Amino acid sequence: MKILLVEDNREIRNSIVTVLELEGINVLTAENGLAAQRILANETVTLIVTDLKMPGMDGLSLLKWLQHEGPSTPVVMMSAYGEISDAVEAMKLGAEDYLVKPFDIQEFLIRVKRVIEKHELQERVESGWRKSANGIQWIGESLQMRQIKRLVEKIALTSSTALITGPSGVGKEVIARMIHASSPRSSRLFVAINLAGIPEHLVESELFGYEKGAFTGAYARKIGICELANEGVLLLDEIGDMPFHLQGKLLRVLQERKIQRLGGTQSIPIDVRIIAATNRDLEELVQQHTFREDLFYRLNVIRIEIPPLHERAEDIPVLTGYFIKQFNKQFGKTVKGIRPDALELLQSYNFPGNVRELENLIERAMILAESDVLTSKDLNLPELRVNSLPRKGTLDDVQREAIIEALQRWEGNKTQAAKELGIDRKTLLRKLTDYGVKGI
Ligand SMILES: Nc1ncnc2c1ncn2[C@@H]1O[C@H](COP(=O)(O)OP(=O)(O)OP(=O)(O)O)[C@@H](O)[C@H]1O
Ligand SMILES: [Mg+2]
Hints:
With 440 residues, the protein is α/β, with parallel strands linked by helices.
């Protein structure tokens, strides 16, 4: 995160820089609008904090330039007391916030952070829309994946609430987008909100929006994500991280299908298909009383549980082929495939990061690959993952290590590795299971 501070008074400039840097924020400084323009020609910043009155080019002119020609970076304006008409002008020109000097530095920090958070959120939502417009594909041939595909096709026609669960990187978001894309709502928005990524105090206003004047800093009405998604699909991602005190409110919204903006009195009817996703064990959270049981039942109408990748190793070859094609397009490469021994190695790896990890692995391999067929060397697997079974004893340790080493030497070829170890293939397979080397 980088902030550009535009301020002609050196003392004020230095004291703000000190505070921001203590917060771990990078700061660039300029003494007026012209200097700021020069910096912005080469640098991208998260936020601009600018004084109003400055010799050379003042804050309002900088704002105007930003609106018309410059980058669309959010701006916080500061000025001395008594220039309230300028404040109004600054807000009209698109400044996100306005601070009157002298201000309390803690208040300054809170306001600056709020603007940054709001923008990051906005970007997340927008990138969500872009992604959903792109053709998404659900790749998988395993029995589990075919069953999920059939379920998705069936429930896409309804508007029932769905709960998607499974470990990180298994494709929960892909499924949510698939439901949207194959539903009658596909011409409407798919909006995703990541409840784990939003500071707790912002969750409510992001979901439900607010009216002008609802709280300090609410300069204009803001439409919440529930309202944005009207007639479309709303993905409540990482629902397990929903703050407890808001769970009751969400439950009411789900039941009544109406929302109220913060500070508002009007009940607004909404027609949204809700999909919730999480990699946490909601049943367990319910038992621990950190997730409301009634909300859980309200969400758990249709349950889609996506198994980890190592439990459906049949999907690894198709997914690998799919990712190779995707990255060929993206990198302008002409990789034709993967060597069988390398593929076998992939199928024996337990992928703690699931499909996302496979995708990253193939991406890296394609960048490194020297020939047009990926080899196990290109894959550079972070050694065969071993389940964290308690080690039994030294002899077992030695055997386990020997087996893993042999497999690595033979690039996953079990027949060769067994031969080298002086055991037969069946024994090797049994030992792999005993030692918790996954997926073989
Ligand atoms: N069946 C699939 N077909 C094609 N691509 C997939 C599939 N499953 C997952 N992916 C890809 O893997 C990556 C991770 O998927 P996704 O973001 O949906 O996972 P997730 O379960 O939501 O993970 P997290 O819990 O970390 O949020 C994405 O890039 C997605 O495109
Ligand atoms: Mg996700």
